[in-house]
Amino acid sequence: MSITSFNPPVRTLMGPGPSDVHPRITSAMARPTIGHLDPMFVGMMDEVKQMLQYAFKTENKLTIPVSAPGSAGMETCFVNLVEPGDKVIVCQNGVFGGRMKENVERCGGVPVMVEDDWGKPVDPARLEEALKANPDAKVVAFVHAETSTGAQSDAKTLCELAHKHDCLTIVDAVTSLGGSELRVDDWGIDAIYSGTQKCLSCTPGISPVSFNDRAIEVIKNRKTKVQSWFLDTNLVMGYWGPNAKRAYHHTAPVNAMYALHESLVMLQEEGLENSWQRHMDNHMALRAGIEAMGLKFIVDEAHRLPQLNSVTIPDGVDEAAVRSRLLNEFNLEIGAGLGALAGKVWRIGLMGHSSRAENILLCLSTLEAVLSEMGADINKGVALAAAQSALK
Amino acid sequence: MSITSFNPPVRTLMGPGPSDVHPRITSAMARPTIGHLDPMFVGMMDEVKQMLQYAFKTENKLTIPVSAPGSAGMETCFVNLVEPGDKVIVCQNGVFGGRMKENVERCGGVPVMVEDDWGKPVDPARLEEALKANPDAKVVAFVHAETSTGAQSDAKTLCELAHKHDCLTIVDAVTSLGGSELRVDDWGIDAIYSGTQKCLSCTPGISPVSFNDRAIEVIKNRKTKVQSWFLDTNLVMGYWGPNAKRAYHHTAPVNAMYALHESLVMLQEEGLENSWQRHMDNHMALRAGIEAMGLKFIVDEAHRLPQLNSVTIPDGVDEAAVRSRLLNEFNLEIGAGLGALAGKVWRIGLMGHSSRAENILLCLSTLEAVLSEMGADINKGVALAAAQSALK
After folding, report:
1. DSSP secondary structure of B318-346
2. Cα(B186)–Cα(B213) distance, rounded to whole angstroms?
3. B30 to A14, A29, A319: CA distances (angstroms)
4. Which of A20, A237, A261, B234 has the fewest CB atoms within 10 Å, i.e. is most exposed?
5. Final residue belonging to a domain, choices A243, A268, A293
6. How far apart (Å, rounded) are the C-alpha atoms in residues B235 and B219?
7. Cross-strand bridge partners of residue B88
8. Does B29 fall in a domain?
9. Do A304 and A234 belong together in one domain?
């Protein structure tokens, strides 16, 4: 065996995540490792929590980064709030609603599914029906921004309905945090999780979560222990909590926290609302180019996520071959469809640092070049001008 | 709010982990992020798995890095192998045996505790008694290298006993991997987990695990689903597995994997057995200095881990004040006692890149300086010469 150092190619990341990571963030990650109980690290942790509150628009004291990817953040919400026998209404309109169902079942809970078509938002009327039919439901779970389709649901309305029927809410904000409007306190979200590798443009591996006092009260009054030791918020709070003794729970991924800290400093420098606006502006430019080329969005305009663009594939085109060529010839990554949309769409991400004018022009020009060479039926020579005019 | 970039101090890390991280590893971590399904990343994953097999001395195909810290590696072993009602014999001789018990209980299993004094190895005779008294036990779990005490147990003998009584073994090798003799296949370890931040000297956050075919067979024949979606090896293998389609499971912590890859390249360059020997040689030098000073080791020589040195505190000395002074005046971190040993010992780590001659002399000289100033009853002016002579 003689394996040598790995030097990755330099890609432009316009898939469903990870997104392009700004060099400030990778540089921060490479700073010298210090101990996870070092007073300097503990001080940095407090800043991370404070900046996560800013990003989530919440005053929740239990706002922390879980030391593992978004899937573990999802699991943190479910294992802490769902006990055996608990009924959970899960709204599914894509891949991640299905994962929520898996989580409920593995906690011994009883999922009640409210299904909507992939690419559509969650329908509040159907949720209300389910709430009426299940007066014993304890939790409503839904995905704010479905990464698998690019559809955005009306989190505020869904939370209002859930609360009207005395349910807690668990919200997946993996793809929305930092990229589009999200107001944890104003909308009454009880538990929420996200990821670092989407609109925060940080390296993947950490999952910010937040629980309000109502959710904490439910956790404190559990009849059973949380089934995961690693994700038990009662234990994690001994390390991360507001008045915690900083007791050892697990060894925090120190350098990954440096990266998250830097990404949140950058978000704060730009301003959260400015970041939301940038994601929308750049989406409008990409959209102008994509539509000029003759391709279509599968999500209707009112519910479309600006940061995750699911675009139809021209008839007769081998979509995987297109993605390979973009990657191999231009170092550009765009995403495949997932689940029910596999083979039917491309997912073009404009998240965080990937949401830039130069990325839009690169994506449109390389896509047009490759599709033209493959003989696809698209409008040529018009996409760039359309995008440029929208950028102005 | 105006929080600025975090610039950590430059510490020398001689606690129980994280250990000093070589700049080659932090530099690797800062390389450009690519997609977790990028063919180049998938190729790197294969190399990581191959080098982990080398480090564990195993041919196990299911040898992978879990995308979360060592505690999650522990949980991966327990949630996959333990079903409700399963009896698990847990040998406890420190903090981490207690955490194993928590894991068994949270899986619905029935722990049978075999307790030894903290600082002693697990006693094979007591394990055998427990095995005879519990013929229905399914799993034996123990810690190879107790990070909380510095005691090393005889993993080979304990595994032989477990197998004689038809039990699977789960072994904690968080602190031993790369630092002292560990032979997964030769010793018949069925499931094992470790961490990156100890003798591999990588940044914290990832947990290498390995399962042999016997363990995989047990997992395949489970009656119930694994309670954790994130840690379910059946699902993880779709992404990491030998013939996997590299199906999306979770977004891997891409840059953390670069770091792990580089740390394993460095281990391979040094040679595993050479690394074990280096840890022993440097322990002997530290020991010579510590004993010359008049301090004592709490673990007897035959069972002492070279990489984790639990050392007694001189009478009347405020141990926390000593650690603070070492950190604040010399940027040197040593560890406090944990659990039953809190306040009774310091834990001095010589792990991975921290296991170097210069660190030994720094630790001895600063410790002597601080203890002398605090009026502790130690032998002065002899530790450095003793260590230097042992280094030769």
Report:
1. -HHHHHHHHHHHH-EEEEEP-GGGTTTEE
2. 14
3. 20, 6, 32
4. B234
5. A268
6. 12
7. B111, B139
8. yes
9. no
Task: Mark which of B237, B268, B299 sits at the end of a domain.
Answer: B268
Q: Which of B17, B32, B69 sits opposite A8 (nearest CB)?
A: B32
What pLDDT, in 10s, does the model give residues B82-139? Answer: 999 999 999 999 999 999 999 999 999 999 999 999 999 999 999 999 999 999 999 9
* Whether residue B112 is found in the same domain as residue B238: yes
Distance of CA A272 to the CA centre of its chain: 16
Sign of the dihedral defined by the CA atoms of residues B362, B368, B374, B376, in that order: positive
Domain interval for residue A153: 23-268
Contact yes or no for A6 and B230 at CB 8 A: no
**A113: helix, coil or strand?**
strand
CATH (domain of A343): 3.90.1150.10
Taking alpha carbons only, the member of B55, B69, B76 closest to residue B178 is B55
B62 and B186 fall within a common domain: yes
Identify whether the C-beta of residue B73 lies closer than 8 Å to the C-beta of residue B207: yes
Residue with tokens 């493959």: A374
Residues in A 271-300 with any Cβ partner in B closer than 8 A: none
Mark whether B331 and B276 lie in a shared domain: yes
* Portion 12-31 of A in contact with B at CB < 8 A: 13, 15, 17-18, 20-21, 24, 26-31
CA distance A233 to A127: 28
pLDDT band at A156 (very low <50, low <70, confident <90, very high): very high
Q: Which helix (H) or strand (E) holds A325?
A: helix A319-330
Q: What is the DSSP string of B139-202?
A: EEEEESEETTTTEE--HHHHHHHHHHTT-EEEEE-TTTTTTS---HHHHT-SEEE--SSSTT-P
Q: Are residues A290 and A221 in the same domain?
A: no
Tell me whether residue B9 is in a domain: no
Q: What is the Cα–Cα distance from A296 to B238, expressed in whole angstroms?
A: 32
Percent of the residues in chain A that have a pLDDT greater than 90, as a whole number: 95
B window 173-212, beta carbon within 8 A of A? 195, 197, 203-206
Q: How far apart are CA B314 and CA B336, in angstroms?
A: 14
Work out the angle at residue B246's Cα, subtended by the Cα atoms of residues B243 and B252, and round it to the nearest 5 degrees: 130
Number of domains present in the structure of chain B:
2
Give the DSSP H or E segment for B1.
none
Same-domain status, B259 and B167: yes
pLDDT score of B242: 63
Dihedral sign of CA atoms B18, B21, B25, B29 in order: positive
Q: Does A2 touch chain B (CB under 8 A)?
A: yes
Domain contains A8: no
Distance CA A106, CA A82 (A): 10
pLDDT surpassing 80 at residue A244 = no
Q: How confident is the model at residue B392 (pLDDT cuts 50, 70, 90)?
A: confident
State both tokens at B188: 């018949």
Query: Token digits for A63?
Result: 């706002």
Residues B224 and B293 in one domain: no
pLDDT in tens, A162-196: 999 999 999 999 999 999 999 999 999 999 999 99
Per-residue tokens: B201: 């000297």
Which ipTM did the prediction report? 0.97
In a domain, B321, yes or no: yes
Residues B204 and B296 reside in one and the same domain? no
Identify the CATH number of the domain in which residue B53 sits: 3.40.640.10
Other Cβ atoms within 10 Å of B4 Cβ, number = 11
Chain A residues in contact with B262 by the CB 8 A cut-off are 5-6
